[in-house]
Design a protein that fits this description.
The complex is a heterodimer. Chain A is an all-alpha fold. In chain A, a hairpin with a 2-residue loop joins β1 and β2. The model of chain A has no long low-confidence stretch (mean pLDDT 87). Chain A has 19 helices and two strands. By secondary structure, chain B is an alpha/beta fold. Chain B is 34% helix and 30% strand. Chain B has a six-stranded mixed sheet, sandwiched between helices. A five-stranded antiparallel sheet of chain B has the order 1-13-14-12-15. The longest helix of chain B is centred in the middle third of the chain and has 16 residues, at 177-192. Chain B is elongated. Classes of the chains: A mainly alpha, B alpha/beta.
Chain lengths: 475, 315
């Protein structure tokens, strides 16, 4: 057995030893065979496609259970288990390559799931070959294969992002990452399923027409690629390689381009509004990456101080290497604003299609130029709130607290304000593009207050920090 | 302080300079610097929260410090941690074992991760397990091993790649005196084979036998880092002398005693180390009295690491 495995990834081999016990393999094979046998015996063989359809249900149902539910759980625990068992540092001490460990974690921690899910997948593919719509069923199978890969990669990548938070805790918990992975891959699986069931339709992306199925496969492969890339990059970081900012920036730009392509899907669009809507879609995508990463990544005082110090010493290469992804995304947002302002100035008076009116107003004007700046003010306010919570809270659920605050600011307050008051107040809580520019006027004091609070919290924290150190030193 | 020992060319395998490590709430290491001689066994001691684990993890390039440098075997481990890991073995304060695996499987995993050539892996596993007295457990599940065996298994994982420097965080914690003794023997053996070892521990009596370098850490600062020659110190005796009054010829009188190796004078108190027996002890007293030194009390003092530590901590 050792000779057989001599050249296999050591992480996969270790997991094979840990997970693939004889009893487990036998029980799985017996269970799948039993269910398949029952289905075969109970199916009316007069209907040519009925048996194939039932076997497809078994195959895909089993695949979803083993890969998307159980597999996601195992993948989300793969790093946390190593941390909790204190074996992670042993692994980090080895000169194992990040790609080896990333692939090892991806397919090793879920080796049993891929074994059982793989059997189910083969059943699905074989059954699909005898089904009524062979092509579309095989395409669906391909999509689900990449959804599984995407889900596992994204939860391990998220665990690696969150590892800084666990490092000094007694027990690492990854329930949130499992939940995010489940939501994301569940959504992609739902899209794949809907597309397969609906009649053939077309997608217009950058004025290129794709069939829905082709576009869905490309999209899922695109996201699976970035998820695997994220896993690899985060593994590199954890194994103390310097990543630099380019990987993240490439991802942000690709997402911006991907999203902007859907501008051509807008009804009654003309050339000018196509451009402006595409740019705003890319802008919103960059904002989304800022918020997501700001919620996921650590925002500790030590990191901010190190960044400030590097910046003051003009060590810009190190500064950019250490910049967290959310600050890189924020820089993209900042750099994109002049482009939006110029584009809005050039294309002023352009009529906006109805579906975009609530986001950009009915035509491009001064308010469209001000709108990105208004959004930027909201982002700065929110990031200041996140930083305040992270710096001032010693322990506890900092990110959860931030999410609650954001939910109150963007959900609860606007809801009640809409119910009880006039048209002006909603501008205070969400960026609304209209001639009054009330959103910008009302968010400005909020930004000032948030920044003042951030400075106060920063100074207090620094002072407490110095006092603690002085007390420790004099003790 | 005067010492007759002549300085030699010293080869330092660990060099730490101005190391600062910060947690969000406090600074754990306050710009510490020290050097460790190649082939030594260093005891890293200090109260809870002194920064011992943080320091060891920085040395192992597992933690990125705020500032400072760590050089191990000529490698700047903070700039090139992966290269540093080739020379470092680290065992954390928890064993960190795969309990469902056998020692053979666990060591094979680490041997492959450390890129040990395939044709050498079995030989290396057998060597390490033999050295650690685990050969007869090679195919038993780790979960079935006793605590002492698990401890040795963790060391086996840390030394499978034959590191030049072995860092150990509280390795004897939870072991009974017999197993601690066995662990001490193991450290000496590994050290004799050329491994430089750094051990953090609370149990100072056990370090006394083998640690020849002492680093005392308190509140993230080094109180003292100094060489201890265990073999020489074992042969040395220390007497403490209390004087009625200081005299000008005290130092001259001490230096005239040929078998005195070192001494320290603090006002009316003299600590004096010498190599010899009871007759030599009597000779010291006789010579000092004959030189007119006003001795009030003269007694043999037995010092060990624990006393040294408490003395320094209390300072």
């Amino acid at each position: 057995m050792n000779n057989l495995f001599a050249k296999i990834n050591p992480e996969i081999k270790k997991n094979y030893w840990l997970e693939m016990t004889t009893s487990r393999i036998l029980i799985t094979l017996v269970l799948i065979s039993l269910v398949a046998g029952i289905l075969i015996l109970s199916t009316n063989t007069k209907n040519d496609f009925r048996l194939a359809q039932n076997m497809q249900y078994l195959g895909m149902g089993g695949y979803i259970f083993f890969i998307l539910l159980w597999g996601l759980r195992n993948a989300s625990n793969s790093i946390a288990d190593e941390l909790n068992n204190r074996t992670w540092d042993f692994q980090r001490m080895t000169p194992v390559r990040p790609s080896t460990l990333a692939i090892g974690k991806l397919f090793g921690s879920t080796i049993f799931n891929w074994f059982a899910g793989g059997i189910c997948f083969v059943i699905y593919i074989v059954a699909s070959l005898f089904s009524e719509h062979v092509g579309i069923n095989l395409q669906y199978g391909l999509m689900m294969l990449f959804v599984g890969l995407f889900g596992h990669s994204i939860v391990i990548a998220l665990s690696l992002i969150g590892i800084e938070k666990f490092r000094n805790q007694r027990k690492a918990r990854t329930g949130l990452y499992f939940f995010i992975g489940l939501l994301a891959s569940g959504y992609l699986a739902f899209v794949a399923s809907e597309i397969t069931r609906s009649k053939l339709d077309y997608v217009n992306w950058f004025n290129i027409t794709f069939t829905q199925n082709t576009f869905a496969i490309i999209t899922i492969v695109f996201f699976a690629f970035w998820a695997v890339f994220a896993l690899y990059r985060n593994m590199r970081k954890e194994l103390q390689f310097l990543n630099g900012p380019w990987g993240w920036l490439a991802f942000v730009f690709s997402i911006m381009v991907f999203v902007a392509g859907f501008a051509s899907e807008t009804k009654e669009i003309n050339f000018s509004s196509y451009w402006i809507i595409g740019l705003f879609m890319a802008f919103f995508a960059a904002i989304l990456t800022t918020y997501v990463m700001a919620l996921l990544e650590p925002k500790e005082m030590v990191m901010f101080r190190q960044l400030l110090e590097l910046f003051k010493k003009k060590k810009f290469a190190q500064f950019f290497n250490k910049l967290p992804a959310w600050l890189l995304s924020l820089m993209v947002v900042l750099l994109f604003i002049p482009l939006l302002v110029i584009a809005s100035a050039i294309l002023s008076q352009t009529i906006i299609p109805d579906s975009w009116e609530r986001y950009l107003g009915n035509q491009i004007g001064v308010h469209t130029i001000v709108f990105p700046i208004t959004i930027l003010f909201f982002i700065i306010r929110d990031l200041a709130i996140m930083s305040i919570v992270n710096i001032s809270f010693k322990k506890g659920r900092k990110d959860f607290t931030v999410m609650v605050i954001l939910f109150i600011l963007y959900g609860v307050l606007p809801f009640f304000v809409n119910k009880i008051t006039n048209d002006a107040l909603p501008h205070m809580f969400v960026p609304i593009p209209d001639e009054t520019m009330l959103s910008l006027i009302l968010v400005t004091p909020q930004v000032i207050i948030a920044l003042i609070l951030l400075v106060v919290v920063w100074r207090n924290n620094r002072s407490n920090y110095d006092q603690t150190n002085a007390a420790i030193t004099s003790a | 302080m005067w010492d007759k020992k002549q300085p030699e060319t010293i080869n330092y395998i660990i060099e730490v300079k101005d190391l600062v490590y910060e947690y969000p709430d406090f600074r754990a290491l306050h710009g510490i610097s020290f050097k460790i001689q190649e082939g030594s066994i260093s005891a890293l001691v200090g109260p809870n929260g002194a920064g011992k684990t943080t320091l060891l993890k920085c040395l192992a390039a597992l933690y990125k410090p705020y500032s400072g440098s760590v050089n191990i075997n000529g490698v700047d481990v903070l700039a090139d941690p992966r290269k540093g890991h080739e020379y470092i073995g680290f065992q954390s304060d928890f064993f960190g074992l795969y309990y469902e695996l056998t020692p053979r499987q666990a060591l094979q995993y680490f041997a492959e991760a450390y890129n040990i050539p395939d044709n050498n892996i079995d030989k290396r596993i057998n060597e390490v397990l033999y050295k650690l007295g685990l050969s007869n457990k090679i195919d038993a599940k780790i979960m079935t091993l006793s605590r002492g065996m698990r401890q040795r298994m963790a060391i086996a994982q840390a030394i499978i790649h034959e590191p030049k420097v072995l860092l150990m965080d509280e390795p004897a914690s939870g072991l009974d005196p017999e197993k601690r003794q066995a662990l001490a023997h193991l450290f000496k053996e590994l050290n004799e084979q050329g491994m430089t070892i750094m051990v953090s521990s609370h149990i100072l009596s056990e370090l006394d036998d083998y640690a020849n370098h002492l680093i005392i850490l308190n509140n993230g600062n080094i109180i003292q880092g100094k060489e201890r020659d265990v073999e020489v110190e074992k042969d040395l005796q220390e007497v403490q002398i209390r004087l009625l009054a200081n005299t000008a010829n005290l130092e001259e009188a001490i230096k005239s005693i040929p078998f005195v190796r070192s001494y320290e004078i603090k006002e009316k108190l003299v600590n004096l180390k010498f190599k010899g027996d009871l007759n030599d002890q009597e000779n010291i007293l006789r010579i000092l009295v004959s030189k007119g030194i006003p001795i009030h009390a003269f007694y043999l003092r037995e010092t060990n690491l624990q006393e040294e530590y408490l003395e320094l901590i209390n300072k």
